[in-house]
Amino acid sequence: MTVDVRRILTLPEWADSVRVLGGATGTARPVRSVRPMLTPGDDRPVAAGELAVVTEPVAPTDWRIDTLLRRIADADGAGVLISAPGEPLRSTLLLADRLGVPLLVTTAVPLDLVIAARLLLASPDLDRATLVLAVHGRLSGRLRPPDVVVSTLRALLRAPVALLDDRGEPLAGEVSDTTGLRLERVVPQRVPLDDGVLLAHPAGRPALWLATELRGDAAARADVVPPALAVGSDAVERWLLTNRIDRERDARARSALLGDLLRLDGEPSADLRARVANEGWRLGGWHVGIRIGARPGVDVLTREPDVGRALRAEGIDAAVVEHGDGWTAWSTFNQEPTAAQVHDVAARLRAAQRRLRDTVSAYMGVGRPHPRPEGLASTVAEATDAAKLAATRPESGHFLHVDQLGMAQLLLEWTRTDTFEPAARALLAPLRGQPGDLVRTLAVYLDAESSITETAAALGVHRNTVSARIERVEGLLGVDLTQRDERLALHLACRVAG
């Protein structure tokens, strides 16, 4: 391990009491020895890589400081440390800058600094071992949650530390630049920064990363810090494994309780009511079922917080249960919701679905409102049916309300005739082959009840793009989509021949 002036400045004894007055550009000079001298006039030869430490206080105006700076520069030394009651002359500082020789000043006992620096030089692994032991001492014993691990490392490293998810987003702590990380590689990484280095160590499954930014003088510890990160990563992984076991046990209990509710025949028993109350669920009132299915490969247990956040962000207060290959949820009203309230809830759930799909590949179905405990099973069953169809409908954004499902099924039954399909294909023929995927845009637009905003969100394009495409559709087909009859005809045609 190469030790330079920057590295020595990060030692605890030096970091709290030593300042760089001049020659800051030379702090990258390697240090091979640290030699105490009584005065700047000590005329013993200077060795290459030598850091000279003047042990007696020096007057700031002492001309011998300049002489010592020149001797260090001529011998390719590392720098000069003095103990001075005031700032040296400006000419001295300018000389240090011009020579690129660090001029350091301290308020501590110089010989104590010599001892700390010599220990580092004599045993390059000592700092690494000391740091690892300190981290292990703080994090061993009882389990620590990730935010405590991060704050402990931040205090010991005196640098930013963060726990990152598999997209590089911080779950705890903060670092400013993660662009160079290759998150698909589950191995320790070292990424150069403009003025330092980013170190990252994998921590548990799914891929989490414990990362720290070492900038400026702290970058000199880049060879020391990785083992400490590894100890911190082990602490995070132990907490995650234990926490997952607890969460899996709780999830099984919640799923079993939900199963008892969905199989309920008659009034719930006192024991069942007590279990429901313990979970904070409500049996009275009117329930709207929600079924969120996850694509293969999604860790349902780990991603449950994402589901809760997406629903809460849209103002949906719902119980969420890990259930099979996804989540079953429901929202409860004190009284029967009006049609307007149901429409509003559906709109907010659609928005939550879009928000959730930023992090989880999932689809959503929503049931009708049903009252009392027995109604919960009915609305969840409807939501489950709707979700199964939503999984195959990208044009709806993989979202389907059971009311939409009923109407769509009726229309499709009516249009499954030998004569309608050719007519539908002929009706849409002018749109085929046109740029902008006009047939799909029209289908999504009509499914979204002519909402430009909803269509743009489902297609992942700008509102203005959707508006322009719909204008082209009207022009090519010679229709007015504000007319209900024409919308209905095109909607049917898109369903059958789109």
UniProtKB/TrEMBL annotation:
Residue ranges occupied by any PucR C-terminal helix-turn-helix domain in the UniProt entry: 438-496
Pfam families, per database record: GGDEF_2, HTH_30
CdaR GGDEF-like domain ranges (all copies): 266-388
Gene3D superfamilies cross-referenced by the UniProt entry: PucR C-terminal helix-turn-helix domain (1.10.10.2840)
Family as reported in the entry's similarity comment: Belongs to the CdaR family.
Protein name: PucR-like helix-turn-helix protein
Organism whose genome encodes this protein: Actinocrispum wychmicini
